[in-house]
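hey so i finally got around to running the thing on that chain from the lab meeting. sorry it took forever, my laptop kept dying and i had to restart like 3 times. anyway pasting the input first so we r on the same page abt which one it is
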Amino acid sequence: MSEYSMYHALGQGEQLDPNDPNRTSQPAPPQFQPPVAQQQSYQQYGSPMASPPAGAGAGGVGLGVGGGGDGSMLASQMAGMSLDGQQTVRKKKKDRHAFHTVEAPAGSSQPYNGIPPASTPATAFLNADPSVTAGNMPVPGNQFFGQPTSPNQFPAPVNAPYNPASPASPAEFAARTGQQPQGPGFVSGPGGAGGVSPDDIPSVPISRDGPQQYYLSNVYPTFERHVPPPATISFVAFDQGNASPKLARLTMNNIPATAEALASTGLPLGLVLQPLAPLQAGELEIPLLDFGEQGPPRCRRCRAYINPFMMFRSGGSKFVCNLCTYPNDTPPEYFYATTPQGVRGDRDQRPELSRGTVEFTVPKEYWTREPAGLNWLFVIDVTQEAFNKGFLEAYCEGILSALYAPEGDQDDEGTNRRIPPGARVGFVTYDKDVHFYNCNPALEQAQMIVMPDIEDPFVPISDGLFVDPEESKAIIVSLLTRLPTLFASIKNPEPALLPALGASLAALEKTGGKMVCSLSALPTWGPGRLFMRDDGKYPGGEIDKKLFTTEHPAWKKIAEKMTAAGVGIDFFLAAPSGGYLDVATIGYVSSTTGGETFYYPNFVAGRDNAKLSQEIKHTVTRETGYQALMKVRCSNGLQISSYHGNFVQHTFGADLEIGVIDADKAIGVTFGYDGKLDSKLDAHFQSALLYTTASGQRRVRCSNVIASVSDNARESMKFIDQDSVYTIIAKEAATKLSSSSSTLKDIRQVITEKTVDILAGYRKNFSSQPHPPGQLVMPEKLKELSMYMLGLIKSRALKGGSETSDRRVHELRMIRSMGPTELSLYLYPRMIPIHNLNPDDGFPDEKTGHLKLPPSIRTSFSRVEPGGVYLIDNGQQCLLWFHAQTSPNLLTDLFGDGKDSLSSLDPYSAILPVLQTHLNAQVRNILEFLKQLRGSKALTIQLARQGIDGAEYEFARMLIEDRNNEAPSYVDWLVQIHKGVQLELAGQRRKENDDASSLASSFSGLRPSYW
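ok and heres what got predicted. didnt touch it at all, straight out
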């Protein structure tokens, strides 16, 4: 198969299909202009940009990225950066770094041997100069020579704002994207002493920003292209019979024919499914098809649904299943004559034969009960803690904003309802007792009925509990407004959560539905009471595995009952001053039923109200289905190994039972071999989700994915989807931690070894040209994988060191359920400098009409400039970090008059004020754009002022290219991985036999000491 290079490593264009006669190798016009270092201590907003210093062009980009050709060509690229015969003199680094005198020999590039020189001591931070302590001998080419080590928790900043998205000249670009043999994604320089510059190692921001520019003006055709765009970017997918990558992503779009060939790559074969993922403006709606009482045509042997890859034979009277190859008789009502080529004449008019994802309405044999609109039950904690911290009031306001749009924001029917027609809502409150509310529209105000028997909960009212939110609007608004004052004087301190859930389940048992429950204190009353299990003392440093799971049988039982009844639950948990809530037990119910837990470890009413309100609104308005069953089918020769996500599976091979499923939930599926695949045929995968919509229709959503098969695994390495690979690995790690005896330390080791396996497998089996042992070689499609793996090890779920069990287990379950878009941001946050925006950043581009987004930068303190202001977003929270020397003009432009110093800002600001200044409009537009590129968590800003706010420590934690979170920096991590690769190539890596691991063959190899 011909080589595809979806887009170049530098992201300035896309190399098109070589088989296409109309192909063009012209790169897309570069969008980004690199900012230039200013000489003053802070960039004053509105000051003109200085012209670039002479010779500071776009030459000297990363070393050997995407190179190819023979060894001599590679060596010349490394040494003189000779590109396609055009000799460009490498500029000295001092031209790019205003405050450093660095003398490196012109025309040389420093090597990356994987192991630092023997005389180099270990350093604490990436930008602390090791040579200062080693006899004060400068290392040639060291970018950070002469920088003192900073005494605070951050390393010392580098002053010059080097922009990694600096575009190359057209000549260099053409040379790099020419039709050359596909080389490794990243190769270090030729051998010698010294270290590699952080600018030379693969950059996640560039791998995102480059494709983003391309897809602002191009669509992604799902059948013509073989590697999907990065998960974090905004793109329009055109469904050509292969499902959109937003709904289904394979780890490899070209599959090795045998299990041995797959093992040689070290990669998992898996599929990430997000069946209800939201569509983007410009994408076709998913077609809804009704085949009447017969239901959709299906294969009689494997029960696969009709899809574009089924072949019609015998003039159209038979169709051959693409999964099990069984020839089926075409139902008479579905018959249509085929052309001489074997294609049905009505193929283009039938969406199920031309689209990768379709929905079928299904007849009664697919029902378990009469479908009805989704019943929402809001279960509200009214204990003393909820009232005191303002959580009760904020939660009630959030429910109101979720149910009713603001006045003037009517829909097509003239109402301002947000939930679909047919859905109904009900309200329950609880403290030591459980209270139900009759909201019948015939009443003047809601009636409260108390259910006192918490030992044996029941539903005290039969009519009026679930009502149409539009008909009972006045009663609901009055109830939610009065609730906080109603319980202000009662103040019971202990909530009885389990009895409240039991009574709520009894109300939903006959219809199915969804609960949205708040909680702000450990439920210590009544049956199912919980105790303080986590006292913060961990002997041996590792947290007890018992704290990750629930040991209470009553909570496990109610979770199973809810799933069987088609009921799911979302929790909104506000920990009392960061106290213990036993998320492991409470969150077990939501994770088992397909719901979600929103956790506020330190809820502050003024700051977090906006976030809470937006998240409740998102929970209620996102596409939600209930009473769901899911089945994944695959081609002959493959079999399903495991599932990862939020569901119940009673026996292996049975359908997945899901109480509720929504647009943000993803499920990982891994496959194994039960035979050899035929490389002349394609491999097919089909997922089918049977669910009831919020408006009360029973449907099947079918997604079909196709992959080519190759006898040579080298071919498969060109069609790897990096986002799917680390998503499957992360979900496997989270599942393994919660379902096996492995400790956190074991899981981190397994992830490290998995990374070594992948890179060593590529170097050993697929590297097209010989490389010196001192070079670290990465596959073109997996250049950034090492960074994402480091991000996974540094995540709160898996990191070493002290972390409360509540936060750990919350983020662990989050990893199991989140999709690739949200996970990618979680593992590597997006960081945007906003103190040096170009005037047109944050406004629509005249050519494309899309918002012009400024380039993001590497998450390292070495990129932070004095006086800088940075927006950093990891999909869960968004921080606005201010340097201590931030310009007063910038603060005034951003926050308004009178806000000219950091101390004058309100630390509880969650949204930017609407001002008539250019900068304010830019940043608000950028924030609005980023809201589209995330999962279930709302985007509100939290201020982190240097030396003032505690959130600054969270900012430091998000800079994952630095050494933090009990793990090494990016460069040190690559050194560690490279040592493992060298040991593997030399046959000296010790392995342990651990059959329980499906992630990798777990072993404790030689661990390099990185500090």
